[in-house]
Amino acid sequence: xxxxxxxxxxxxxGLADFGGGLLTRRIPALTVVxxxxxxxxxxxGAIVIATGGWTEWGPQLWFAVGAGLVGPIAMLAFYKALAxxxxxxxxxxxxxxxxxxxxxxxxxxxxxxxxxxAGIAVAVVGIVLAGGPELRGAPVQRRAVAxxxxxxxxxxxxxxxxxxxxxxxxxxxxxxxxxxxTNVTAGGTALFISVxxxxxxxxxxxxxxILWSSIPALAFVGLADVAANGTxxxxxxxxxxxxxxxxxxxxxxxTALAARAVLKERLRGVQAAGAGLALVGTVLLAS
Length: 287
Hints:
By secondary structure, the chain is mainly α.
């Protein structure tokens, strides 16, 4: 069950990242984050009411609040790093956040067997290579590297925090709702400050029309991201966090394959090799 939930997480995160990447070509990234998460809040609120999830209120929800605060910071740092580029360096570095939940699992006493340790090593190398790292070319700004590492740590911290925010399914719905409310609050505040400083929340001219026409895509991105957090939490609760974290982090492979299928982007040799190694690591971990 751990492997199935974790692989479902990678599928959902990979598709959400792909959809979010497409949306940010037309709409400012911060607006995409706030709008997609707002839709997720509405849907999760309805689920919490329908399932009676509010009865699970307790101190463990502070983990969800923490995840909700860290998530937007990590995402904004990642988008800023992508803007500074090059993407072939930023994207693979961003996936290194997996070391945070893996480290937490080891600290808490998890001791995977030899095949699982081998699977972790192989899968992490595959995850990095799937991003298509650029080993040659223009020098990378130190600021871009620093922002990427901040984002990676943030992404990993969210994985570790959300896994601790609930102990059952109805509690998970409430935890995800609290996380998303915090996301929207933090992201909305950042968007308001950005607009006050002269930034734009929507494209010039037809911004409202573009946003309205993008509602289905925004809903997909927001709900896929929420579902991914939920399946990761279930994966971490059903088995070793080390296995759940690594298998949940092969989403760059899904994003690359989606770009290949939809946008006809060709996979570089290093990306294809990375995808293969990630799959080998998956088999070793699931063994």
